[in-house]
Amino acid sequence: MSDTEPEFTAAGVGIGIGVGLSIGVALGVALDNLALWMGVGVAMGISFSLAFSQAVAGEDEERSDGEREGEAGRGQ
């Protein structure tokens, strides 16, 4: 994966949007202005989806690197 091309995973996008919308709804209900905070929740969800999808993709890469190292050690 190149540094200039972010990789989006379905799990990361789903988690990010879910977390962002949950925070937006919680703030909207608590502050009695759901219409305002739902928009903020959508924006947070988009930001979180980028962060979580890259984190999930990074974990997958680390696992595959570790598996390759383990296979190389067994082959000796």
Automatic annotation (TrEMBL):
<feature type="domain" description="Glycine zipper-like">
    <location>
        <begin position="13"/>
        <end position="54"/>
    </location>
</feature>
<protein>
    <recommendedName>
        <fullName>Glycine zipper-like domain-containing protein</fullName>
    </recommendedName>
</protein>
<feature type="transmembrane region" description="Helical">
    <location>
        <begin position="37"/>
        <end position="58"/>
    </location>
</feature>
<dbReference type="Pfam" id="PF26273">
    <property type="entry name" value="Gly_zipper"/>
</dbReference>
<keyword id="KW-1133">Transmembrane helix</keyword>
<dbReference type="InterPro" id="IPR058598">
    <property type="entry name" value="Gly_zipper-like_dom"/>
</dbReference>
<keyword id="KW-0472">Membrane</keyword>
<feature type="transmembrane region" description="Helical">
    <location>
        <begin position="12"/>
        <end position="31"/>
    </location>
</feature>
<keyword id="KW-0812">Transmembrane</keyword>
